[in-house]
């Protein structure tokens, strides 16, 4: 099976968009580990319709004008991994889940470590929002795109910034600093903007408040 790819410059680094036939199969980070996502041979295809549409929707997302993606997806992995990745798609924009919550959602509360491993191998980054999965106490955990990018994405979804507008290095550093402060506040259960409501209240938790 040959995969088609297109490179895209973005506020979170160069992304590699990968298609299988007419479906999006992967969004890989600029410094992704070579074996994190196992795909077959790739050929560059800058005119691929699905990759052009993926790029268009990603640019809208980075500009702060898109909250949901509408793309045909083709996840390549084990059945358990696919369950986890499909669970990621149900996390609403601007909200977060813990690994335990995802384990409960896929029907195995004891599979927290396996959920973490599957989350780390999510092939379709950003669109399948593994950046919205955080530690139970609110801390940011490992992320294939780097923790700075994870903070940027969560900050964007909190309505704190447009990444397209903050693409230069100086503004990007400010965004990272603000996101870091909000994350620390959430971890320390600060009462103001950055409170992540625990799932026991029956509400869906958000790392950053409105």
From TrEMBL:
Involved in the cellular defense against the biological effects of O6-methylguanine (O6-MeG) and O4-methylthymine (O4-MeT) in DNA. Repairs the methylated nucleobase in DNA by stoichiometrically transferring the methyl group to a cysteine residue in the enzyme. This is a suicide reaction: the enzyme is irreversibly inactivated. It holds the Pfam family DNA_binding_1. The keyword Methyltransferase applies. It is found in: Cytoplasm. GO terms for molecular function: methylated-DNA-[protein]-cysteine S-methyltransferase activity. Residues 79-158 form the Methylated-DNA-[protein]-cysteine S-methyltransferase DNA binding domain. SUPFAM superfamilies: Methylated DNA-protein cysteine methyltransferase domain (SSF53155), Methylated DNA-protein cysteine methyltransferase, C-terminal domain (SSF46767). It catalyses: a 6-O-methyl-2'-deoxyguanosine in DNA + L-cysteinyl-[protein] = S-methyl-L-cysteinyl-[protein] + a 2'-deoxyguanosine in DNA; a 4-O-methyl-thymidine in DNA + L-cysteinyl-[protein] = a thymidine in DNA + S-methyl-L-cysteinyl-[protein]. This enzyme catalyzes only one turnover and therefore is not strictly catalytic. According to one definition, an enzyme is a biocatalyst that acts repeatedly and over many reaction cycles. InterPro entries: MethylDNA_cys_MeTrfase_DNA-bd, MethylDNA_cys_MeTrfase_DNAb, MethylG_MeTrfase_N, MGMT, MGMT_N_sf, WH-like_DNA-bd_sf. Its EC number is 2.1.1.63. This is Methylated-DNA--protein-cysteine methyltransferase. NCBIfam families: ogt. It comes from Paraburkholderia antibiotica. Belongs to the MGMT family. The keyword Lipoprotein does not apply. GO terms for biological process: DNA alkylation repair; methylation. GO terms for cellular component: cytoplasm. It comes from the Bacteria. Residues 181-210 are annotated as: Disordered. Keywords: Cytoplasm, DNA damage, DNA repair, Methyltransferase, Transferase. The active site is at residue 130.
